[in-house]
Design a protein that fits this description.
CATH architecture of the largest domain: 3-Layer(aba) Sandwich
Helix content: 40-55%
Structural class: alpha/beta
Distance between the termini: 11 Å
Order of helices and strands: EHEHHEHEHEHEEHEHHHHHH
CATH superfamily of the largest domain: NAD(P)-binding Rossmann-like Domain
Largest sheet: 8 strands, mixed
Strand content: 5-15%
Oligomer: single chain
Number of helices: 13
Strand order of the largest sheet: 3-2-1-4-5-6-7-8
Number of strands: 8
């Protein structure tokens, strides 16, 4: 029989792209959530964006566990950070990626929250140690890097800063696992943590291949989607290396690493496109042209894929629970 836990009170700072999705994760699993934002438009639309997400998931056959209105009833939106922090157990910060803003936010949170509250930053690349530097009780501050959209992608990187206490990382890992996420421990607070270091290493090489005229941008994506990308959900690079043999991996690296881009500066093509205002979906042109219909199709293709993966994980999880309970 599964052990029951009291539903901790959650506060989310920032109601934007990531914040409303993080709030949704906890509300779906029975937690009361306060969402804080100083932008009235973003704040007032947060619950409707959650409703749209939940409706889409339900329409694709995902079992939410509760009625949509019941889930939404657990979410409270407010511009008053002090009242939202008064009796919360966990805070998840999801404000704009600006170091000074995050430092001020955590100094305020450290002052406003009860001493046992754990304070988490959703930054994707900024040092957690630097973010916590203006706070007095830095032992309760750590990183929890969710991936977008946070209600569909399971991974959360739990990043330990220089002063983070053991009890803080353990409690955070535990609650994330209980709300259906896949938390992983990041033991060193380095820029980009694990996921973004890997992702942008791939992007750097992809853009370098374009810079050097080896192939066009569409071909880069075709090679990944139709080649090694197909096995990435099943085999990560470390397991793949063990599978093919570390002696072969070493021989390949002895030859190829000297030919792979290691430039610390961004791609020249990337820089030129940004300077020309060619920003991708935002402007309708980036590495390739993006008519509105293609933008909509790309977003829908990604959402459908992620929902299908989420549904399959849910079926697998429920199947495992059923087998365990029947023993």
């Amino acid at each position: 029989m599964r052990e029951m836990f009291p539903p901790e009170r959650i506060t989310v700072i920032g109601a934007g792209l990531m914040g409303h999705g993080i709030a949704q994760v906890f509300a779906v699993h029975g937690h009361r959530v306060s969402v804080v934002d100083i932008d009235e438009d973003i704040l007032s639309s947060a619950k409707e964006r959650v409703r749209a997400n939940l409706t889409t998931m339900a329409n694709h056959g995902i079992n939410l566990g509760f009625e949509i209105e019941e889930i939404l009833g657990r979410i409270n939106t407010t511009a008053d950070m002090a009242s939202a922090c008064e009796d919360c157990d966990f805070v998840f910060e999801a404000v704009f990626e600006n170091l000074e803003l995050k430092q001020r936010t955590f100094a305020d949170l450290d002052r406003l929250c009860q001493k046992r509250a754990i304070l988490c930053s959703n930054t994707s690349v900024i040092s957690i140690t630097e973010i916590a530097s203006e706070a007095e009780h830095r032992e309760r501050i750590l990183g929890t890097h969710f991936w977008n959209p946070p209600y569909l992608i399971p991974l959360v990187e739990v990043v330990r800063a220089e002063g983070t206490a053991d009890w803080c990382t353990t409690a955070t890992y535990d609650i994330l696992a209980r709300v259906g996420k896949h938390p992983v421990h990041v033991h060193k607070d380095v820029p980009g943590f694990v996921g973004n270091r890997l992702q942008h290493a791939l992007w750097r090489e992809a853009f370098a291949i374009i810079d050097e005229g080896i192939c066009d941008p569409s071909t880069v994506d075709e090679v990944i989607r139709n080649g090694f990308g197909l096995r990435l959900p099943i085999l990560g690079p470390v397991e793949t290396a063990d599978m093919i043999g570390l002696d072969l991996t070493l021989a390949i690296h002895d030859y190829i690493l000297k030919h792979i881009n290691a430039d610390p500066s961004p791609s020249t093509t990337l820089q030129a496109k940004v300077a020309a205002g060619e920003l991708g979906f935002k402007s309708g042109r980036g590495f390739r042209d993006w008519p509105e219909a293609d933008i909509a199709e790309s977003r829908e293709r990604l959402l459908t894929y992620l929902i299908n993966v989420f549904a399959e994980r849910q079926r697998h999880s429920r199947g495992g629970e059923s087998r365990q309970n029947s023993r």
